[in-house]
Amino acid sequence: MTRVVGSIAPHGGQLVNRVLRGTLREAALERAQSLPKVQLTPMAVSDLEMIAVGAFSPLTGFMTREDYESVIDTMRLSNGLPWTIPITLPVDDETAASLKEGQEVTLMDGDHVMGIMTIADRFPADKKREAKEVYRTTDEAHPGVARLYQQGNWLLGGEVFMVNGPKVVEFPELRHEPAQTRRMFASRGWRRIVAFQTRNPIHRAHEYIQKTALEIVDGLFLHPLVGETKADDIPADVRIESYRAILRDYYPADRVLLGVFPAAMRYAGPREAIFHAIARKNYGCTHFIVGRDHAGVGNYYGTYDAHYIFDEFEPGELGITPLFFDYTFYCRKCGAVVSAKTCPHGKENWVYLSGTQVREMLERGEMLPEEFTRPEVSRVLMEGIRAKKEKKEE
Q: Are residues 214 and 356 both part of a single domain?
């Protein structure tokens, strides 16, 4: 465990640290050479890193059957602690048949050794049940459900240690671990920190929400997700450049910290909103912004289902304060960015674009409306999409 710095305790009370260093790492690497090898899926690669650095505290490994079933059915670990998303290690039938409980295995990211795991449990995945309860649908068109159905039929549970980070490490300068962010917040004198989760570029509505939240806290932790996402989501490197552009010109530098969240996107809507909040609590945040259709995709979730799910937990039980925001947009009549809670005018005055419209405009080389996003952001996105398109055509 890592000594806790910060004004809020990690989930479960202790910040997990399963990263081996020094002689312990060297011994584990040597041992790993002779152990059976288990290949990690892209999501399991990021999950292993998140477990090891403490972002998924109190988890010390991939879930056993008891925790898996408890999370699916009750949104809690088997000890009663709130937790809404199964964190599992899927393997195919052949791999599962070759392994047994109590055995130690090497966790591989392709040909790259990432960690060591002691198998405590080996059990069949209940995919239909997991899809129905976690994603609220069994429709294979849902990206999270599709990934779930495509993965192996068996799950391995047990404690892990990480000896190497992922094979490909993006944005190393922004990859702040929970123990680091807690020290960074403390060094800035921040006691109330609000986190903002995003997998999209920042537009004017996001800016409005973030700055409104900044009025009541000491600092903003802008924490975009850069793990596995849908193929049609804007690439992480383009998004990061757009964040830097808007922070440089429109935010107070001493009140914002940019970092990356290397977790995979589940698209689990309401359950993922709770999951994202708990993870940011581990990073040291005291508040968490929950917007419209948080972590949603398509029409699988109601507009404010991600708000309502917080009511299923007792006040204070999650240990982080959610800040709920309504649908936000630029209103031509108000002459400002407002929300459905504050604007008295009709939709004919509102400027808003769907993700599809944004992508189509950028692909055509069109600047997005200034009422929708800052020109600096629009320019970065347009150039990034053009570069991606040119690379694809080569």
A: yes
Residues 322 and 212 in one domain: yes
Contact 220, 256 (CB under 8 A): yes
**Residue 215 CA neighbour count, 13 Å, CB half:** 7
User: Domain containing 269 — which CATH number?
Assistant: 3.40.50.620
Distance from C-alpha of 255 to C-alpha of 33, rounded to nearest angstrom: 46
CA-CA distances (angstroms) from residue 165 to 50, 162, 168, 344, 378?
Answer: 10, 7, 8, 51, 33
Tokens linked to 114: 């990432």
Q: Are 155 and 81 found together in one domain?
A: yes
Residues whose CB is less than 8 angstroms from the CB of residue 365 and which lie 6 or more positions away in sequence, other chains included: 382, 386
Q: How many helices (H) and strands (E) does the chain have?
A: 13, 15
Instruction: Judge contact between 329 and 351, C-beta under 8 A.
Output: yes
Domain boundary among 162, 182, 205: 162
CA distance 210 to 188: 19
- Whether the model clears a pTM of 0.90, i.e. scores above it, the answer is yes
Do you know the residue count of the chain?
Answer: 394
**Active site (catalytic) residues:** 199-200
Each residue's pLDDT tens digit, 327-361:
899 999 999 999 999 999 999 999 988 777 888 88
Examine residue 284 and state whether it is found in any structural domain, yes or no.
yes
